[in-house]
Amino acid sequence: MIVKSLLFCVVVVLLAAPLACSKRESRTQLQVEIPAEFTGNFVLLMGVHDAPPLQKDGSAYIVAVPRSGKVETSTIVEKPQVTFKNSGGGQVWGYSERMFTTGDGIPTGGNIEFFVGSKKDFEAEQNKKNKSGGSLKTEPAFSAA
Known about the structure:
By secondary structure, this protein is of the alpha/beta class. The chain is about 20% helix and about 40% strand. Strand 7 (about 90-100) and strand 8 form a beta hairpin.
């Protein structure tokens, strides 16, 4: 009887373990508001000491792109699910995220970068940066909504 009880407990634990581990990790929402007249490079510098935190709307962080194209924040958003709002209908090109961590994997900062404008303008900007003549990704990263 004890063996059956022990076997039953082992089976229950083995069946329950995947269910406990299968909880989907929800990604942090980041909404980037791009003014209709904005074109050019944008960079969001995260984890900047003494910089203001990002504003929130419900559970989503909000970033308003300034004319300078640069935002510094003390907030660190890891692997966000990004949405773009742009009444001008521009395209976002060359989107990239980088995180900086300690040796233990604790985030200390990071940045998000992209370009807003036409494909032609993006390629011209990349050619300025990449004088080695390497290939360019010319598919838009996102279309702004």
